[in-house]
Amino acid sequence: AGVPCHPTGTQTSQLTSDPPWTPVFLPEKVMLTCQGSGVPGLTEWYLDEQFWQRTRSDYIYVSKKHPGNNSYQCCSPGARLSPPITLSFSNDWLVLQVPVRALVEGDELLLRCRG
């Protein structure tokens, strides 16, 4: 099927997370979804800028057993590598959550407090 990640692809893969908040509590699962050109094939996943795995589906579930952050990226077949998103996992009693997606100056920032 060839290499799914195309540095010269016309579209950039888009990585989204559900829930779209960080940090998340241990051991909650986060669903990452990779959208791209719609070409059939395998999706590539990158963890902290290193190749991690290939999947037939365009989504994966991630969780951690210990607190910490990781950067995730994906590559949809025929598309370029997605911008990274960083997920933090926390075992605190209370967390102040922010959206995972990147914000630009002037965007409204919604904060969530969860316990």
From TrEMBL:
Highest taxon, organism lineage: Eukaryota
GO biological process, one term: cell surface receptor signaling pathway
Annotated Polar residues bias: 8-19
Molecular function per GO: transmembrane signaling receptor activity
Signal sequence, start to end: none
Keywords: Disulfide bond, Receptor, Signal
Region feature (Disordered): 1-20
GO cellular component annotations of the record: external side of plasma membrane
The name this protein goes by in its record: Fc receptor-like B
Source organism of the structure: Eudyptes sclateri (Erect-crested penguin)
